[in-house]
Amino acid sequence: MAAGDIEKAVRGKNIHFPQTGLICLENPLNLAGRVVVPLENMQEIFGLA
């Protein structure tokens, strides 16, 4: 999961769509090949919020 992917999904102000107000991160060990999201990626995503 890259911060650029999250940034593309964040909605800005548009009367036709709700604005993004929350970004939730999860480490789904089961479905992601037992690989956790690196701390650096989480910090970069946090910077977007």
Helix and strand arrangement:
Layout: H1 3-9, H2 39-48
Task: Describe, in short, the structure shown.
With about 50 residues, this protein is mainly α. About 35% of the residues lie in helices and about 0% in strands. Helix 1 runs parallel beside helix 2.
Q: Mean pLDDT across all residues, rounded? A: 82
Distance between the termini: 15 Å
Fraction of residues in H or I helices:
25-40%
Number of helices: 2
Order of helices and strands: HH
Task: Tell me what the structure shows.
With 49 residues, the chain is mostly helical. It has one domain (3-9, 20-48). It is 35% helix and 0% strand. The protein has two helices and no strands. It has helices spanning 3-9, 39-48. Helix 1 runs parallel beside helix 2 (39-48). It is elongated, with a radius of gyration of 13 Å. 0% of the residues are buried. The mean pLDDT is 82.
Provide the descriptors you would attach to this structure in a database record.
single chain; 49 residues; mainly alpha
